[in-house]
């Protein structure tokens, strides 16, 4: 039998894929690493199917390894007997807790079959939410900007974990970027916001990303001329 890593998408229940929904409905147990992913999963499965696992909120690597070994030891026998799902927001292979579980299972329970159901990642959903087009020929880099970091370099970047907007904003503007922020995009839980004014988002919120584009970036696609010339 199988452990499925299921990507739930950004938060709205109807952005779960058809395949993800089918896997959730057929799974014997559904594990979720957080309150938000649990609330999305509950739109598709009964609460009685939700499994119990402890997930540590720590950066201590030894504690993390111990906790993931315990989580894998709980999940592995269930996944040998039946089908089990482990859900994550977005896609399971993009900056996700599923990676810890997958590596731990591969190391200590290699007989467990693993399958991943991709989900709509914030990495792509941001484009629609912010009205950004990543046109053919363009490059786009994904970076983290936790704790006020402001990575710079590429012409266009999407930044995850933008927890200290004023500090990140200052660094990006100094480096010549125009920046738009997106908070709780396509999420039912909490308020969605899209703005290029950092003062509107003073409160910290983990579910915040930024799209940064070099102010002097030139868009070369043929039809871009229509936007320039009308
Ligand atoms: C640990 S990463 C998880 C990414 C997720 N696996 C995915 O594929 O979207 C969490 C970061 O993704 C971004 N993020 C995820 N979902 C978001 C959403 N609905 N709206 C805005 N940002 C989101 C935020 O920057 C957040 O700090």
TrEMBL record:
One of its GO terms (molecular function) is cobalt-factor II C20-methyltransferase activity. It comes from the Archaea. Pathway: Cofactor biosynthesis; adenosylcobalamin biosynthesis. Residues 2-136 form the Tetrapyrrole methylase domain. GO terms for biological process: cobalamin biosynthetic process; methylation. The keyword Electron transport does not apply. Its EC number is 2.1.1.151. Keywords: Cobalamin biosynthesis, Methyltransferase, Transferase. Pfam families: TP_methylase (PF00590). It is an enzyme of class 2 (transferase). Gene3D superfamilies: Cobalt-precorrin-4 Transmethylase, Domain 1. SUPFAM superfamilies: Tetrapyrrole methylase. PROSITE patterns: SUMT_1. Belongs to the precorrin methyltransferase family. NCBIfam families: PRK05576.1-6. This is Cobalt-factor II C(20)-methyltransferase.
């Amino acid at each position: 039998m199988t452990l499925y890593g299921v990507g739930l998408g950004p938060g709205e229940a109807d952005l779960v894929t058809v395949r993800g929904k089918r896997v959730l409905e057929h799974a014997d147990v559904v594990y979720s690493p957080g309150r938000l992913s649990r609330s999305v999963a509950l739109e598709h499965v009964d609460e009685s199917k939700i499994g119990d696992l402890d997930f540590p909120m720590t950066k201590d690597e030894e504690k993390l390894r111990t906790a993931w070994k315990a989580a894998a030891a709980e999940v592995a026998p269930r996944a040998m007997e039946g089908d089990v799902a482990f859900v994550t927001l977005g896609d399971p292979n993009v900056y996700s807790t599923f990676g810890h579980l997958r590596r731990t299972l591969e190391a200590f329970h290699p007989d467990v079959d693993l399958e991943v159901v991709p989900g709509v990642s914030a990495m792509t959903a941001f484009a629609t939410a912010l009205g950004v087009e990543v046109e053919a020929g363009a490059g786009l880099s994904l970076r983290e900007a936790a704790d006020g970091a402001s990575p710079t370099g590429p012409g266009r970047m999407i930044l995850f974990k933008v927890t200290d907007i004023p500090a990140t904003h200052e660094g990006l503007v100094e480096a010549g970027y125009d920046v738009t922020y997106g908070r709780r995009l396509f999420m039912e839980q909490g308020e969605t916001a899209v703005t290029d004014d950092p003062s509107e988002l003073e409160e910290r919120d983990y579910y915040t990303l930024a799209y940064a584009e070099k102010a002097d970036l030139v868009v070369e696609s043929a039809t871009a001329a229509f936007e320039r010339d009308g």
